[in-house]
Write a structure and sequence with these properties.
21 strands; 10-stranded antiparallel sheet; 10 helices; alpha+beta; 28% helix
Length: 423
């Protein structure tokens, strides 16, 4: 990798160089790291198909929730790559420097597939994915009924857990700037995987997820179970967290699911750490971590195998998986698209890190569609599950509306009431 030529480059330059050619982009920052990455794929559409981590080149992958065979996964190749450490300058690999210095012609801008906000000095474009103006998934009555139906199905032995999701719409301000929103989100969530992805025909998605799906290299494999949710003040120590039986049981189900997948492939040599409380903005979750030394087990393809076994996890779908999927398809009335799918960089410096796409939103022409779900068990109370989804939406809305790191203020509580009661 080389530092860019004399002209200082910005994220806006990188973004525009790809978006204006109708290419695909991904911008991200991994948890507890200070490097922001940019990747641009200049092809007309990303490669689609099942991912083999051992054979895949360096790039970025995005998978929808409904992808049981893995064939719908999108791979963005690294035609252009840039990075910035902390407050330093942006650096790029040679291809971008050469293209910008030569002033290569750009393909015509697809005006019907992009949206611009702000004046010409600050305008940035992004790809649109057309959705209905209204969706039943955002209505409280529908969600409450769905939760009740889920509890009834659990009592009848159809499954042990199901995750019910819904949406919330937030209007975009007239001066909305998508790159500023990403930078704001990145600063607000240092412990999350923060991403912004824009793909022709598939739209533009931004989020800050706390949940690792898999991390895989030649030497190690890692995954986590994350479940159970409660509001928790930012000024309180995590050692003071108390969990009720419903939340403990929900997290235990996710952990059991991971162990069952290990058993499926006869893997017994793994290390389990947790559960422990972890923070995600103004919420906390229970987390258990699983690691495998690949030098000990001689299983180099473990990352690929576990990726296809785990997705979708019981934390976003339910248990047993296929019974829960059938319920979701029949009752949710929502195309989750990339929400609760997975995304992340593959084979960067020999490491692939894929995350469950939670705490995310899709950016449309005049509004953002936020997604949230709640794990339903036999102990669930429908009204409280609705309130949990409102809290999860609020963590993103705080940042969107310029509050910085999420905090529970009187204004926040009023907004939560709006999310929780007016839909």
């Amino acid at each position: 990798m080389e530092k860019v030529f004399e002209k200082q480059i910005s994220l806006k330059d990188l973004w525009s160089s790809v978006i204006e050619q109708n290419g695909s982009v991904a911008v991200w920052r991994c948890p507890r790291e200070n490097t922001i990455h940019f990747l641009g794929d200049l092809s007309e559409s990303p490669v689609k198909g099942r991912i083999d981590l051992q054979k895949t080149d360096m790039g970025f992958v995005v998978s929808p929730f409904m992808n049981p065979e893995g064939n719908e996964t999108l791979f963005l190749k690294a035609d252009l790559y840039g990075w910035k450490m902390g407050d330093g300058e942006w650096n790029t690999s040679t291809p971008l420097s050469a293209r910008m210095e030569k002033g290569e012609p750009q393909r015509p801008r697809n005006k019907f597939g992009m949206q611009a906000h702000g004046d010409s000095e600050k305008t940035n474009y992004y790809h649109l994915n057309h959705r209905p103006d209204t969706e039943i998934s955002g209505e409280k009555d529908h969600f409450i009924t769905m939760v009740k139906n889920g509890i009834n199905a659990i009592e009848e032995g159809e499954f042990d857990k199901v995750v019910s999701a819904r949406t919330y719409d937030e209007p975009l301000s007239d001066n909305f700037d998508i790159l500023h929103q990403f930078e704001r989100l990145e600063k607000a969530y240092p412990d999350a995987f923060v991403s912004l992805v824009s793909i022709p025909g598939r739209g533009t998605w931004m989020g800050a997820t706390p949940e690792l799906l898999i991390e895989s290299s030649d030497e190690h494999f890692r995954t986590v179970s994350v479940a159970g949710t409660q509001s928790f003040p930012l000024d309180k120590d995590l050692s003071e967290a108390a969990w009720n039986q419903k939340e403990i049981e929900e997290q235990a189900m996710v952990s059991r699911y991971i162990i069952e997948q290990f058993k499926t492939i006869r893997l017994r040599e793994f290390e389990e750490t947790g559960p422990r409380s972890v923070r995600a903005g103004n919420m906390i979750h229970l987390k258990t971590e699983y690691t495998v030394d690949l030098n000990d087990v001689q299983f180099p393809e473990l990352g690929t195998v576990m990726l296809h076994l785990l997705h979708p996890t019981s934390a976003v779908c339910g248990m047993p998986k296929f019974s829960a999927l059938r319920f979701i398809a029949a009752h949710e009335h929502l195309n989750r698209e990339f929400y609760s799918g997975f995304l992340g960089p593959v084979n960067f410096n020999g490491v692939s890190r894929l995350y469950v796409n939670l705490r995310c939103m899709q950016i449309l022409r005049t509004r953002a569609v936020l997604y949230a779900g709640a794990g339903i068990t036999h102990d669930s109370i429908p009204e409280k599950e609705w309130e949990e989804t409102a809290l999860k939406c609020q963590t993103l809305l705080d940042v969107m509306n310029g509050h910085g790191e999420p905090q529970r203020t009187r204004d926040t509580e009023k907004k939560e009431n709006k999310i929780g009661k007016s839909l």
